[in-house]
Specification:
By secondary structure, this protein is an alpha+beta fold. Helices cover about 15% and strands about 35% of the residues. It has 6 helices and 21 strands.
């Protein structure tokens, strides 16, 4: 087996599980929201969560971000997902007229809710397509509020089995997430106002070299266990393009997988961020690292 390291532009902590047994098709399960949206402004994470259904049909949906981006980590969990399998083609959609996105989420255990689907990055308009990396954008990217207004539900469908959570529009909820992640910039000791009007974020110039080192240093103990994980990495880039600091947060729990990515990242080289006047300033580069088995 070959381990892959995927760097992508952008769920609480969940454990990635092995595939479950095959299952038969069932009728769609449609659940209404049974709680208010709960927002958690943690030091290094913003989480938006709500419950759907009641009693034995109770499910949880949450969105998470570890830095400003136009995509969000998403986890949906509950008994309706018991027969879903990891890395299997799964349709994901957010409103009636939308062509379903073809995805391959992880499957993991999510506390008292049981099995859940775990997405590293979701954009309600693009699905899980990450061709528009926020770090390649001319300025800071945030969640698209206009797109969030169109949301009617979060629906996942795999091999004929569909679970649909009727969220209604998410514009107000996503606006709160944008506020949370923008506030993070100040908590990191950076200037939120300069980022809001920046003409360029840091550009990584020796990415191929550093990613190669990260892949080669992958922990053998985790490899032997077959552990997979979603991690969030953030580095502070000074006005000369040098890395000042590196932080990795776990979006999924692991036992042996401790990413060595921060060691080589201290040798990463960047073109610095530029403000509205074209002056270089301290900023950040953030991304997700997805360790997964090649099928």
């Amino acid at each position: 087996m070959i381990w892959l390291l995927k760097f992508t532009a952008m769920a609480g902590v969940v454990a990635v599980a092995a595939p479950s047994a095959a299952w038969a098709k069932d009728d769609p399960l449609v659940l209404d929201r049974s709680t208010q949206w709960n927002v958690d402004f943690a030091p290094n994470k913003c989480r938006l969560a709500a419950a759907f259904g009641e009693d034995d049909d109770r499910h949880i949906l949450f969105f998470e971000q570890y830095y400003p981006a136009d995509s969000v980590g998403m986890t949906i969990a509950g008994p309706g997902l018991d027969r879903f399998r990891s890395r299997m083609k799964t349709e994901l959609s957010f409103f009636q007229t939308q062509e379903p996105h073809r995805t391959e989420p992880f499957v993991g255990e999510v506390g008292q809710y049981g099995k859940g689907l775990i997405y590293s990055n979701v954009n309600v308009a693009r699905g899980t397509d990450q061709q528009d990396d926020e770090n390649d954008a001319p300025a800071l990217k945030l969640l698209d509020i206009d797109a969030a207004k169109r949301v009617e539900y979060v629906a996942v469908k795999q091999r004929g089995r569909e679970v649909r959570l009727t969220t209604g529009p998410l514009d107000e909820a996503f606006a709160v997430m944008n506020t949370c992640t923008t506030d993070m910039i100040g908590e990191w000791g950076l200037d939120p106002e300069r980022h809001a009007t920046a003409t360029r974020l840091p550009r990584w110039t020796n990415e191929e070299k550093i990613v190669g080192r990260i892949v080669r240093e992958y922990p053998r103990a985790a490899l032997y266990r077959g552990e997979q994980a979603i991690l969030r990495m953030r580095v502070i880039v000074d006005q000369t393009g040098q890395v000042e600091d590196c932080v990795i947060d776990e979006a999924t729990t692991t036992e042996k997988l401790e990413s060595p990515a921060c060691r080589p990242m201290m040798d990463a080289e960047f073109e610095p961020a530029l403000d509205s006047n074209g002056d270089a300033f301290r900023s950040f580069y953030a991304t997700s690292i997805v360790y997964q088995m090649r099928r």
